[in-house]
Amino acid sequence: MTGVDDDGPDSGHVLLRVEGITKSFPGVRALDGVDLSLRAGEVHVLLGENGAGKSTLIKTLSGVHRPDSGRIIVGRREVVIRSAQDAERLGIATIHQEFALVPGLTVAENLFLGRQPRTALGLVDRRAMRERAAELLRRVRLDVSPTTPVAELGVAGLQMVEIAKALGRDARVLIMDEPTAVLTAEEVATLFGIVRELRASGVGIVFITHHLEEIAALGDRVTVLRDGRSVAEVPASAGEEELIRLMVGRDIAEQYPRERPAGPGAPLLRVRGLTRAGAFEDVGFEVRAGEVVGLAGLVGAGRTEVARALFGVDRYDAGTVEVDGTELPRGDVRAAMRAGLGLVPEDRKGQGLLLDASLRDNLTLARLDRDTRAGFVDRAAQRREAASVAERLKVRMSGLEQSARTLSGGNQQKIVIGKWLLAGARLLILDEPTRGIDVGAKVEIYRLVNELTAAGHAVLMISSDLPEVLGMSDRVLVMAQGRLVGELSGERATQDAVMELAVRSPQADRDPQADRNTNTGQSAMEGSDVG
Amino acid sequence: MSAEVLRAPGSAPGQWFARAVLRNGPLGGLVALTVVMAVLSRDFLGGQNVLNVGVQASVTAILAFGVTFVIVSAGIDLSVGSVAALSATVVAWAATSEGLPVWLAVLLGLAVGVVSGLVSGALVAYGRLPAFIATLALLSVARGLALVISGGSPIAFPSSVSRLGDTLGGWLPVPVLVMIAMGAVAALVLARTYTGRAMFAIGGNEEAARLSGIDVRRRKLVIYALSGLFAAVAGIVLASRLTSAQPQAAVGYELDAIAAVVIGGASLSGGSGKASGTLIGALILAVLRNGLNLLSVSAFWQQVATGLVIALAVLLDTLRRRSTR
To answer: What phi and psi values does residue A464 have, to the nearest 5 degrees?
Structure first.
């Protein structure tokens, strides 16, 4: 047990050390000798493509998985973490991407779940609980009452409650798994402020992110994982190109390799005056064959709602959706599919995949009708089709009978997209297609988008990742508060221009009667000036 | 050949046995239970008794095949016992009391099963009732209708249909054949038909299934209708064995059917299940009851033992899954 105390000259003592951890699952070596050391008062970024082993690593630290070999040292002691309770006792708190909060309970009840303060009679001391909860909420600068039901909070609020919960349990090590993935720019800034305060108070933070620009802004050191190994530990100032090179083991010449086809073809999709009370209002646009149209805007601007409505998932009150000049019936997914639409939903696991079903079943799900003759499914044809599309998309898998749950995020997304390729979709609606996906898989998805548009298909891409939406789209539509507030293309499509439109939505537009003619693409620019 | 290879299974037969049970899940459990019963009772493996076990399993198994469809799609069907009784009562009433041709009476009985299923399915798919509640309501309604139609007393079953309860060639019980045939149909439906694949998709992730163009509501109608159809067949087989349709027959059978499905390895949260597993589940229950009868264990203790076996079977299955995950 030597070498536990080789602190660098510039920072605190080592809180947590991981040495040579390995972990195998059937058919996959998830971790293959990972080292990591976390000092008090540092933000240690864990970087790697999806499937590199980040999730498995933090799950071994939070008691979900037991490593096959290797050591975990907390303070000066080698430890075995068998459960979440063990991790908590050791002062390790993990904020997973899926929050562990009970929606029906109040903020205070969630903060003290399982360890509520008691009165002399053994009953829950509600007042003490509220007071201590209020104190914790102040520390994370969350301005809500402790008695607010958690279900009423947005994503950012939920995250702050998770952080407060960790603080309430005196966590010395805080592991955050992609905390910024679902936050707006403003919320990210707040989060960073809180993380910096925690760092100053001596907490060690393991921070996972796919946003490289966040690393220089917040991190101290970076450990890069690749194929289950820790391949490098570098200062956070290493620079994006260097980090990408370490992460993928090769240089990525072009992050957004959009190849625009010569000129857009005939209109494929035409949306006019699409309205649903309380969700979106008078949305109209067109997508032509061979085009990638981006749909930008803040979270909650109504982009996903529009996508779901035009795909027939949800109903709408007014307006029309036409594909190839033929109007689609409202609320009919199957009709939309027959017309050639396909939706890759934002919530991959919740809406895109049958997690415990085989890749074959997942890939062929949207063409089950077509593979059926007289009520019987042609399973051999399904196998052939699934195999061909899996190969085309270079899905990393052990076989078609593997369950979707065991794939990395990027490969899961390829399965969802592959499903629509097999269904013959000509217009793919991609809702946050690369959220939580590593750089390598992202580029593969961009190349696929190029391939599809070159073949005369079209893509409507909803994305909160501005560089992505600008880099990959031929035209960018901007939505704010349920309305289309602008269309940008070419030189005018800059991050600043999009953000300006996205945040400058006028109050007046909230009134459904306010101004019906403002948002058909071009005229929408004036619409945003009303406020 | 190395000595270790030879020693591995032989050195610790107990361990080997435990591992075999764990690896093969429900089938291992059935084999283990059969071995135990054969050791404890000399009569157990007699040819006649094995067929008896088959007959005893048949009604539960046929009900359970139908329930498998529902459970795979993440639903539940509590009404199958009552629907079985109602269908049998309708067959007997139509043929015996109303003098309809027997084939028509049987068709009517099967139709009653399908309609009952459609009602449950409509309540679940279109009325958005939880399946538990919708089928609980049907459980009561179907039982009540059976009592109303029969006036509360058994009706003689038409003798031509009652042959379903007899044997072929004097030894092969027809209920066993019906069970095997219905099992084959269930396996085919699950593995190869559109509705079967849709069951797995809906049970695996209903929203993903809907967004992939599965007409979830219509499929649910079909799924519950199939369950009702299987219940009707089970009811007719049961009445054939008893040679009369009894409105109070098959009370509580839905729980045996659900137990058989779950013992067979299906998950109540949907997305997994097999007809072969369900058959094994029904056989495990039948072997247990038959064996305990042979051992003259009192009916009271039999209930205790059945409960323990259900818990143990599912526990083993859970452990098995965890170890392979």
So the answer is: -95, 0
Residues A54 and A187 in one domain: yes
Which residue of chain A has the CA closest to B193? A376
Quick one: closest CA in B to A65, which residue?
A: B325
Q: Are strands A221-226 and A43-47 parallel, antiparallel or unpaired?
A: parallel
Answer yes or no: is A345 within a domain: no
Confidence at residue B10, expressed as pLDDT on a 0 to 100 scale: 41
**Closest-CA distance of chain B to residue A378, Å:** 7
| CATH code of A523's domain | 3.40.50.300
Alpha helix ranges (H) inside A22-73: 54-61
ipTM: 0.85
User: In 3-state terms, what secondary structure has residue B307?
Assistant: helix
Q: Which of A406, A424, A442 is the last residue of a domain?
A: A424
Has residue A349 been placed in a domain? no
Q: In B, residues 212-251, which contact A (CB 8 Å cutoff)?
A: 212-215
Contact B165, B174 (CB under 8 A): yes
How far does A431 lie from chain B, in Å, by closest CA?
13
Tell me, yes or no, whether A371 lies in a domain: yes
Number of H helices, E strands in chain A: 17, 22
Residue A9: the pLDDT is: 41
**In chain A, which residues have their Cβ closer than 8 Å to the Cβ of B191?**
379
Residues of chain B where predicted confidence (pLDDT) is lower than 50:
1-11, 325
Task: With CB atoms and an 8 Å threshold, state whether B212 touches A377.
Answer: no
DSSP SS3 for B219: helix
Number of domains in chain A: 4
Contacts of B324 in chain A (CB under 8 A): 26
Residue A407 lies in a domain: yes
Residues A157 and A230 reside in one and the same domain: no
B323 Cβ under 8 Å from any chain A Cβ: no
Question: Does A283 lie in the same domain as A135?
Answer: no
**Domain region containing A474:** 256-340+426-531
Select from B211, B217, B219, B267 the residue whose CB has the most chain A CBs within 10 Å, as the one to mutate to test that interface. B211
Give the DSSP per-residue string, A164-191: HHHHHTT-SEEEEESTTTT--HHHHHHH
Helix axes B216-242, B80-92, angle to 10 degrees: 60
Domain boundary among A200, A218, A251: A251
Chain B residues with CB-CB distance to A343 below 8 A: 211
My answer on whether A142 and A185 are in the same domain is no
State the average pLDDT for chain B.
90
Residue A396 burial (10 A CB sphere; 0-12, 13-18, 19+): middle
- A196 and A210 in one domain? yes
Candidates B205, B210, B269, B323, partner chain A, best to mutate (most A CBs within 10 A): B205
Residue A514 has pLDDT above 50, yes or no: no
Q: What b/e sequence results for B296-311 when a residue is b if at least 16 CB atoms lie within 10 Å of its CB, and e otherwise?
A: eeeeeebeeebeebbe
Residues 6+ apart with CB under 8 A from A493: A470, A473, A475, A476
> Has this prediction a pTM greater than 0.80?
no
